[in-house]
């Protein structure tokens, strides 16, 4: 079965760049989606199909996916970016989604 | 506006049954898959399963197969998640979410993830 590995936590200084990774063998062959979840709120999709931003998501959020690692990049980090972030892929063999383990982002 | 509105919080005893709901509006409910996601207290997101309301085709995550039942009533634009006998370990927040469009381009499928989420339903199971 799928496992998507993320770092437990990432810290970033205000205004700097945070990078959150999502690892799995040959993840580059999959569409990867990313979600932001703030405390007490439902998740929100911030990136879909590796590097596409839904309307309303700031350009500071970007994604990439190649080889065994997908990456969510948050540029010019703001205090409001503090949240848990999850990657996700669709497993076409089982017709199910799989979530990553989640990363807590702290803005210092 | 596209929305998924879930039913309210539930407090149940072990062994009781429960059915929670997720009502879609603002789009053609029968044309999009609806999935369910569990989040236990202080933990990450877990995929439970998905249903296509148009024909009730349903797929379960192996972890939840046989533990819950996912259904849909297309006449009411509502999806459901139900338990026949709750356990304390079912205590969690449950989210429904719509799977976004899937495009078929050049022989490959391109998925969009979960583009609309419900607000969540808290389920507490305690004696």
- Along the chain, the helix and strand elements of chain B come as EEEEEEEEEEEEE
Q: Largest contact between protein chains?
A: A-B, 26 and 26 residues
* Unreliable segments of 5+ consecutive residues of chain A: none
This entry's quaternary arrangement is heterodimer
**Helix amount of chain B:** under 10%
| End-to-end separation of chain A | 36 Å
Give the topology string of chain A: H per helix, E per strand.
EEEEEEEEE
Explain what the structure shows:
The complex is a heterodimer of chains A (108) and B (127). Chain A has 108 residues and is mostly beta strands. Chain A contains no helices and 9 strands. Chain A has strands spanning 9-12, 18-23, 32-37, 44-47, 61-66, 69-74, 83-91, 96-99, 103-107. In chain A, strands 1, 3, 4, 7, 8 and 9 form a 6-stranded mixed sheet that branches. Chain A has a 3-stranded antiparallel sheet with strand order 2-6-5, with no helix packed on it. In chain A, β3 (32-37) and β4 (44-47) form a beta hairpin. The radius of gyration of chain A is 13 Å and the shape is globular. The mean pLDDT of chain A is 95. Chain B is mainly beta and 127 residues long. Chain B has strands at residues 3-6, 10-12, 18-25, 34-39, 45-52, 57-60, 69-73, 78-83, 92-99, 103-105, 108-110, 114-117, 121-125. In chain B, a hairpin with a 4-residue loop joins β5 and β6. The radius of gyration of chain B is 15 Å and the shape is globular. The A-B interface holds A 1, 31, 33, 35, 37, 42-45, 48-49, 54, 84, 86, 88, 90, 92, 94-102 and B 35, 37, 44-47, 49-50, 59-62, 95, 97, 100, 109-115, 117-120.
List the helices and strands and how they pair.
The complex is a heterodimer of chains A (108) and B (127).
Chain A: E1 9-12, E2 18-23, E3 32-37, E4 44-47, E5 61-66, E6 69-74, E7 83-91, E8 96-99, E9 103-107
Parallel strand pairs in A: 1-9
Antiparallel strand pairs in A: 2-6, 3-4, 3-7, 5-6, 7-8, 7-9
Chain B: E1 3-6, E2 10-12, E3 18-25, E4 34-39, E5 45-52, E6 57-60, E7 69-73, E8 78-83, E9 92-99, E10 103-105, E11 108-110, E12 114-117, E13 121-125
Parallel strand pairs in B: 2-13
Antiparallel strand pairs in B: 1-3, 3-8, 4-5, 4-9, 5-6, 7-8, 9-12, 9-13, 10-11
């Amino acid at each position: 079965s799928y496992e998507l590995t993320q770092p437990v936590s990432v810290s970033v200084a205000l205004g700097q760049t945070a990078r959150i990774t999502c690892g799995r063998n040959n993840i580059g062959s999959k569409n990867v989606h990313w979600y932001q979840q703030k405390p007490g709120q439902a998740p929100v999709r911030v990136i879909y199909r590796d590097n596409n931003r839904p309307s309303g998501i700031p350009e500071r959020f970007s994604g990439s996916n190649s080889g065994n690692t997908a990456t969510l990049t948050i540029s010019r980090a703001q205090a409001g970016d503090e949240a848990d972030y999850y990657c996700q892929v669709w497993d076409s063999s089982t017709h199910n989604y799989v979530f990553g383990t989640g990363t807590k982002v702290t803005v210092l | 506006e596209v929305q998924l509105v879930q039913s309210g919080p539930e407090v149940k005893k072990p062994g009781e049954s429960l059915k929670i709901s997720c009502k879609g509006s603002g789009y053609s409910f029968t044309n999009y898959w609806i999935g369910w996601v569990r989040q236990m207290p202080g933990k990450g997101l877990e995929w439970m399963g998905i249903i296509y309301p148009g024909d009730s085709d349903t797929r379960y995550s192996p972890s939840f197969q046989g533990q819950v039942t996912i259904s849909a009533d297309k006449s009411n634009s509502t999806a459901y998640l139900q338990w026949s006998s709750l356990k304390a370990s079912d205590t969690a927040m449950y989210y429904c979410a719509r799977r976004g469009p899937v495009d078929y381009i050049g022989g490959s499928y391109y998925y969009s993830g979960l583009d609309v989420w419900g607000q969540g339903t808290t389920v507490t199971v305690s004696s």
